[in-house]
Specification:
By secondary structure, this protein is α+β, with helices and mostly antiparallel strands. The chain has two domains: 128 residues, no CATH class; 35 residues, no CATH class. The strands form two sheets. Strands 1, 2, 3, 7 and 8 form a five-stranded mixed sheet that branches. A hairpin with a 7-residue loop joins strand 5 and strand 6. It is elongated, with a radius of gyration of 23 Å.
């Protein structure tokens, strides 16, 4: 599976100096700076290999290069409004993914059933009506309420038939804790994880020219 990942990184002082002096004597261009920024972002996340990705695009946005061309780097210095919009969007992905997982884990044993089958089993509830079956419905069983107590953990440990809801809850908690996973799709170098600190967000939104977003095509 492939996913686009976004890495937030702050520009180094020398990179900022070159950006503010395009006619510098070293003849350093904006493209050079994008390459340097990308190299640093890749280096900052290389220890996640075989944990978050098994391979990734390291010099471009890969399959998403049309949206993020060349080095796959969005400099706040060049595109402050776009930078802010993308940062707000991608920094929320871990939370949105966790909420989606939690919603999905409220039920298990999903299947398309007739109304008669659902009525005959009191544990089944109708989730939705499939577009391809006029007289059938998506149905499932409600999972145990996820209130973490000692008894909840004991019950989960003793449950053998279907503990997918426990795995889902675990993944959701990992995402909102800021653990960098394949599903996070976002990483803040300054915070060392997928959860951006309020102080980092405030600084990046107030001073976009000091930051960049690096996009990479991840596979895992």
């Amino acid at each position: 599976m492939y996913k686009l990942h976004c890495i937030l990184i702050k520009l180094a002082p020398e990179e900022l100096e070159y950006l503010h002096n395009p006619d510098n004597e070293d003849d350093v261009s904006v493209e050079d700076i994008k390459i340097w920024v990308r190299e640093r972002a890749v280096e900052a996340t290389e220890h996640y290999e075989q944990k978050v990705f098994d391979y990734r695009s390291e010099d471009s946005a890969g399959r998403w290069s049309e949206k993020f061309p060349d080095e796959g780097v969005v400099l706040g210095f060049q595109e402050p409004q776009r930078f802010r919009q993308l940062l707000q969007e991608y920094s929320q992905i871990p939370l949105q993914k966790a909420l989606h997982i939690l919603k999905s884990s409220l039920y298990y044993d999903y299947a398309v059933r007739t109304k008669e089958e659902i009525t005959a089993d009191r544990e089944l509830v109708i989730i939705d009506k499939p577009s391809y079956e006029v007289s059938k419905y998506w149905s499932a069983r409600k999972a145990p309420e996820a209130i973490i107590t000692e008894q909840y953990l004991i019950n989960a440990w003793q449950q053998w038939d279907d503990i997918s809801f426990v795995r889902d809850l675990s993944l959701a908690l990992r995402l909102i804790s800021g653990e960098y996973t394949f599903d996070s799709c976002f990483y803040s170098v300054a915070d060392g994880g997928a959860r951006i600190a309020p102080v980092t967000m405030a600084d990046a939104m107030a001073h976009p020219s000091q930051y960049a977003l690096v996009f990479s095509d991840y596979h895992f």
